[in-house]
Amino acid sequence: MFIIELTYTADLAHIDANMRAHMQFINAHYASGHLVVSGRKIPRDGGILVAVGKDRAEIEAIAQQDPFVTKGLATARVIEFRVSQRADDVEARIKKG
User: Which domains does the chain carry?
Assistant: First the structure.
């Protein structure tokens, strides 16, 4: 499993102007089965995506395709981890939070 951390390198006006393309990218990767959850960081200086894939190279390639990254508006850092535990009520906790 992987965490993709996006860190904005441009002002929010440029981010907002490119949000539609970013959301198309996000939705395509939910549909492909790669994304599990995603959202904005607080404060709003980037975003977090939790992803699954066959290996780090696949997720790195996906992260580099994000329009925010390709347009130089953000950097992407991929963190790999092994899931060893999870709450039985993960879905309920996500909805609650």
Answer: 2-96 (3.30.70.1060)
